[in-house]
Write a structure and sequence with these properties.
423 residues, alpha+beta, BirA Bifunctional Protein, domain 2, 8-stranded mixed β-sheet, 3-stranded antiparallel β-sheet
């Protein structure tokens, strides 16, 4: 959560920052609870000191005096129980309200209400021009025999998919290509747990303001299925204090991602752009506040390097405040050109969350002067596999239904240079 001391000093700043993200915070109630909680905490600390003093006295007391001290301690305990019965629910309510305060956007982020006000930073690559009637990725996938949504629906319901044959090969070609590029930039490959605790999911900033509705939850185990490897990678160093010389620590994680797609009824019902389960390769960085902005630019540059390697036209979007979500202080999206829709669709994002997640996770580092501070955390998509496959199929299609394979992926495709229609 945000620093309560900072909130006390700058309540208007946090109120305005929350409103810029279309969130209202209960400032008056937070101040009321904060005052009462601090007052009760002072009383409880005083009682603890009394008990410690009484414990010392009892060792020196006579039998008669010892009885008086014991009786006095019983009275103190009863008072403490009364205070704690008031303190604990107030502290819990205060924590709940503080957890709902979003990470303020950085000063270079445009204030806007929705994605309609996002900024286009640049467009890269030439959109393909076809001299034949094009097919969408679903039709191409069926012709090639690599995408099977019909059987997946039979097995699991709507918004699931089987990748088979060359489709599966292409998926893992993307994974290996992303891993190899990221490794050159110092990222450590990782596979991650697909289930995380309630504490972790909340600390990463995904449960407030309707986020719970988007996530698959196992109530018997109090565990959540991850919606991105970020949620596992970000918690790796929870409750740890790192040395400054260890930073930056960079991971690139591969995992399935599970999303309920709540509220998406009627959207992208054809094909595999919006599904409940997809694989993703995700980058995650821990760094110092001083290097945070540079790290964010590095993540964006790697995403662009990967897209340029594939030769897919794309544009870079800088999100306005109203589209940022709870944990992000700045976010860039990359949107790939999808010929069948004649528009760009999101395939990547990269966010800096400053110290918002690390405060919740208690992930710190000790600087050169020995001062302990919170790290900054950043994340970035290497590839969301399904959507990247969509972009490859549609941009590289040929008239006969075959699809050229981007040259950077050929080393991972068992000698194949294109995908052939199934006979």
């Amino acid at each position: 959560m945000i620093d309560i001391k900072s909130f006390r000093e700058q309540p208007q700043f946090f109120r305005d920052a929350a409103r810029a993200k279309n969130i209202e915070i209960e400032t008056d109630r937070i101040f009321e609870l904060d005052r009462r909680v601090r007052s009760l905490k002072t009383e409880l600390d005083g009682i603890k000191a009394q008990k410690n003093e009484a414990s010392k006295d009892i060792t020196k007391a006579t039998a008669e005096q010892r009885q008086l001290v014991i009786e006095s301690m019983r009275l103190i305990d009863r008072k403490a129980e009364t205070l704690e019965s008031e303190y604990n629910p107030l502290l819990e309510e205060l924590s709940e309200l503080l957890y709902k305060i979003p990470n303020p956007a950085l000063s270079d982020v445009k204030i806007g209400q929705s994605e309609a006000e996002n900024e286009v930073v640049r467009e890269v690559g030439d959109r393909p021009v076809f001299d034949f009637k094009t097919r969408d990725h679903q039709e191409l996938g069926e012709i090639l025999g690599i995408i099977d949504t019909e059987r997946a629906t039979k097995v699991s319901g709507a918004r699931f998919v089987y990748f088979t044959g060359d489709g599966a090969l292409l998926e893992f070609a993307l994974v290996q290509y992303a891993m190899s590029v990221a490794a050159r930039h110092g990222f450590i490959p990782a596979t991650v747990p697909h289930l995380v605790s309630a504490r972790v999911m909340r600390a990463m900033g995904y449960l407030e303001h309707g986020g719970h509705d988007e996530i698959y939850y196992l109530p018997k185990d109090n565990l959540y299925l991850i919606g991105t490897a970020e949620q596992s990678l970000g918690a790796m160093h929870m409750d740890e204090t790192l040395a400054a010389k260890q930073l930056p620590i960079r991971y690139i994680g591969y995992s399935p991602c599970y999303r309920r797609e709540a509220g998406s009824y009627g959207k992208d019902t054809r094909g595999i752009i919006r599904v409940h389960q997809f694989d993703k390769v995700e980058m995650f960085s821990f760094t110092t506040p001083e290097e945070s902005d540079n790290e964010h630019q590095l993540l964006l540059s790697i995403e662009e390097e990967l897209m340029q390697g594939l030769g897919i036209p794309y544009r870079v979007i800088k999100q306005c405040t109203g589209d940022l979500g709870l944990p992000a202080a700045r976010k860039f999206d990359i949107e790939a050109w999808i010929p069948s829709q004649e528009k760009y669709r999101e395939t990547h994002s990269t966010s800096t969350c400053t110290d918002f997640q690390s405060r919740r996770l208690n992930t710190r580092y000790k600087d050169a002067e020995g001062e302990t501070k919170f790290v900054h955390t950043l994340n970035g998509t290497a590839f969301a596999i399904g959507r990247t496959l969509v972009a490859i199929l549609e941009n590289y299609q040929r008239q006969d239904g075959s699809v050229n394979i981007p040259s950077v992926l050929e080393p991972y495709m068992a000698g194949k240079t294109h995908l052939q229609p199934r006979k």
